[in-house]
Amino acid sequence: MKIAIVCYPTYGGSGVVATELGHALSILGHEIHFITYKQPVRLDTLNKNIFFHEVFVPEYDLFHYQPYELALSSRIVDVVKAYKIDVLHVHYAIPHAYAAYMAKMMLKDEGVSLPIVTTLHGTDITLVGSHPFYKTAVTFSINNSDFVTSVSKSLKNDTESLFDINKPIQVIPNFIDVNKHAHLERPCHRESVADNKEKIIIHISNFRPLKRVKDVVKIFEIVQKEIPSKLLMVGEGPERIKAQRYVKKNNLSEKVLFLGKSNEVNELLCYSDIFLLPSEKESFGLVALESMLHKVPVISTNTGGLSEVNIDGISGYLSSIGDVKQMANNTIKALSNDKLYEKLQKGAFEQAISFDISNIIPKYEEVYKKALESSI
Ligand code: GMT
Asked: CA–CA separation, 248 vs 239, rounded Å?
């Protein structure tokens, strides 16, 4: 099949999922065309079945906002015609599903049929999409996609309660490529960040307000009083400065390392002992899954789809949003009992491998097949 994929090319989970999906489909022999404004960060290996089409938005002074949707929909039309694309799969509804619909209409005018599959990822629904300024267009774009998928049951429920949706939403969970990570074995180079007696606690995110990064530091503040440890803060975003101020004010600077954005996530997770994810919203929590594959138990909130990924008492622990004390106690509990820790490590790994890509790809292939059949 010839499949075009529209996604955000950045470090966000939706871009990672789209890229890994495209890559896996290309290995199965499908021809994959990424259409986005930059080469996706995880698209490090191009092969004969993977094409990348950049979307250019020429700057024009008259425009206060440059019309990305317009450029994207034109590019979709051009790529679909040039490469005879069978299906268009858009990740993250805003503005991709909207641009996809426009492209579909333009193509229809020329007698070309283009089925659209839209995958909802989280903030496109729970935060941005449901804002009154966007809601009408997002509802329209979802209802006019040929197939709609969501990455968790929780996100499906949120979408159905926040929008007036007349399309069935199929849950296809996010995934991880177990084989790709199979060679990652402990011990890694942990001496580069901590000494022998110290545990390594890690948080990776885009440091947006909904990640509650100050909670991460507050949890660590309690933990380090009981357990010699270091906190690695990986990522970049608007809340970093606040977290850094808190660290300085509370004399934690020697124990908390702000590492910025990293392409070394596997190496970092490889030597980490606990992953902290105290998010306010999380439709799935792909980073928790990546962490679990490295046998790193996850201490998280129970928001959104997190409880579908991190199983309380098995792969880590779940707490209510803002319950810093309980999340700290759970971290201490896990790190101070070797037997329990090993059990959690095993549980985390087993849970992670149940999300192996080989179980998920056939579900997307089935959706593409149905989308194609429905358009003939
Ligand atoms: O977490 C973010 O803010 C990035 C965002 C994205 O669109 O890339 O992540 C969302 O999609 C990921 C992949 O499906 C999910 O794992 C994240 O849970 C989800 N984020 C939120 O719902 C906040």
From this structure: 15
Instruction: Point out the ligand 1 atom lying closest to the alpha carbon of residue 152.
Output: 14
Pocket test for ligand 1, best of 19, 94, 121, 162 (most atoms within 8 A of CB): 121
What distances in angstroms separate CA 123 from CA 13, 16, 41, 246, 339, one per listed residue?
11, 15, 20, 27, 38
Q: Are residues 145 and 219 in the same domain?
A: no
Question: Structural domain of residue 159, as residue ranges?
Answer: 2-175+356-375
Same domain, 162 and 302: no
Q: How far is the CA of 155 from the centre of ligand 1 (A)?
A: 11
Q: Quote the ligand 1 centre to 252 CA distance (angstroms).
A: 29
The 10s digit of each residue's pLDDT in 305-329 is 999 999 999 999 999 999 999 999 9
CA of 120 to the centre of ligand 1 (A): 10
Query: Is the CB of residue 251 less than 8 Å from the CB of residue 224?
Result: no
- 361 and 348 belong to one structural domain: no
pLDDT given for residue 186 in this prediction: 61
Q: What CATH number is associated with residue 94?
A: 3.40.50.2000
Task: Give ∠ CA 74-367-98 in degrees, rounded to 5.
Answer: 30
Residues 144 and 52 occupy one common structural domain? yes
**pTM over 0.90, yes/no:** yes
